[in-house]
Design a protein that fits this description.
Pfam families: GMPPB_C, NTP_transferase. This protein has about 400 residues and is an alpha/beta fold. The protein contains nine helices and 31 strands. It starts with a strand and ends with a strand.
């Protein structure tokens, strides 16, 4: 029986600076979206792949930060999940190659590679079937986006009939195509040979330059270490048009989770998806014995929500949260151990761990997921006193607000 393994790239603490202040005390991959850690969504999608042997998380966070999560998710899904720590960044392809012996332990016929900060429906089984039909080295998940936004991503040209990847360019300055790379791939083990070729070629070039002149040593191409191999520029671009790489287009939702604003949007996308994949995770209530629920809402079993509260749409309430009488929550993520007191309102906001929102207070924002202050963020242990209004603002941890603020970053 052919076995499949999955590798999820989780990055490390040097990345994710745009995710502050939410990444101060929790690794970005463990930040909850729709009540589940960010990395949980690609992991549970991998679980649906037939003949899946193992899931690997590769990154350069300290191992202790993932130990608890990895053991609990392995037990829950009844599949081995392992965290592999890089000694330094090796690039998206280099990281895969660095752990090739561990990844190939089960002698898999196919290897999935996913980026953790991608939000989509992960059509992995369909992708694998298409990949087997193409019989190339790799298949890339792609999606059509607006021509204006395409330049923020890797743009590609594919044959409309055969789906072969013909041309790939990362964040081009001029428009190439409205088809972009989703950061989800499936490869045969031939990918390791391809990565090895890039490293060898780079070493040969370095030796050649070393023999010629001192000036060439100063050239920008020398900047990349031999074992740092990027999947996009070093593999996809040179192998395009060689009948090695193919594309599989998703017609479903897709977003990149680079900022807290996008995490709130993606939490809503995952909540909407739960309707079809995990309806048992969505809360219900008509305001009699439990709170009124509007649209897609997740409430952790340990949270206490007053029956007169009105929650939703797009709300995720984490563990040990207390929501008082008459509270209104719309489009927000409420993290562990938060208290929202009577008649407070929270709209388009993320409320950090152990924070408290006083009676009759409002914490809200315009809801522009792409703008810097488009959503309001309260860091850990922020106290908003009674009758205080916080609009379009970011508040760093351990602050007390006793006056109203708007369009501010409170350091």
């Amino acid at each position: 029986m052919e076995k499949v393994v999955a590798v999820i790239m989780v990055g490390g603490p040097t990345k994710g600076t745009r995710f502050r202040p939410l990444s101060f005390n929790t690794p970005k991959p463990l930040f909850p979206l729709a009540g589940q850690p960010m990395v949980h969504h690609p992991i549970s999608a991998c679980k649906r792949i037939p003949n899946l042997a193992q899931i690997f998380l590769i990154g350069f966070y300290e191992e202790r930060e993932f130990t608890l999560y990895v053991s609990s998710i392995s037990n829950e899904l009844k599949i081995p999940v392992r965290y592999l720590k890089e000694d330094k960044p090796h690039g998206s392809a280099g990281g895969l190659y660095y752990f090739r012996n561990i990844i190939m332990e089960d002698n898999p016929s196919h290897i999935f590679l996913l980026n953790c900060d991608v939000c989509c429906s992960f059509p992995l089984t369909d992708m694998l079937e298409a990949h087997k039909r193409y019989s190339g080295m790799g298949t890339v998940l792609v999606i059509k986006v607006s021509a204006e936004s395409a330049s923020q991503f890797g743009e590609l040209v594919a044959d409309p009939i055969t789906k072969e990847l013909l041309h790939y360019t990362e964040k081009p300055e001029t428009f190439v195509s409205d088809l972009i790379n989703c950061g989800v791939y499936v490869f045969t083990p031939d990918i390791f040979t391809a990565i090895q070729e890039v490293s060898t070629h780079r070493e040969d070039q370095a030796n050649l330059r070393h023999l010629t002149s001192f000036e060439t040593l100063q050239s920008p191409t020398r900047a990349l270490p031999q074992d740092f191999v990027r999947l996009d520029q070093d593999i996809l671009s040179p192998f395009a048009g060689k009948k090695q790489l193919y594309t599989y287009e998703t017609m479903d939702f897709w977003e990149q989770i680079k900022t807290p604003g996008m995490s709130l949007k993606c939490s809503g996308l995952y909540l909407a998806q739960f309707r079809y994949t995990s309806p048992d995770l969505l809360a219900g209530g008509d305001g009699t014995k439990s709170a009124s629920i509007v649209g897609d809402v997740y409430v952790h079993p340990s949270a206490k929500v007053h029956p007169t509260a009105k929650i939703g749409a797009n709300v995720s309430i984490s563990a040990n949260v207390r929501v008082g009488a008459g509270v209104r929550l719309i489009g927000c993520i409420i993290l562990d151990d938060v208290e929202v007191q009577e008649n407070a309102v929270v709209i388009n906001s993320i409320v950090g761990w152990k924070s408290s929102i006083g009676k009759w207070s409002r914490v809200q924002a315009d809801g522009d997921y792409n703008a810097k202050l488009g959503i309001t963020i309260l860091g850990e242990a922020v106290i908003v006193e009674d009758e205080v209004v916080v609009i379009n603002s970011i508040v760093l941890p351990n602050k007390t607000l006793n006056v109203s603020v708007q369009d501010e970053i409170i350091l």
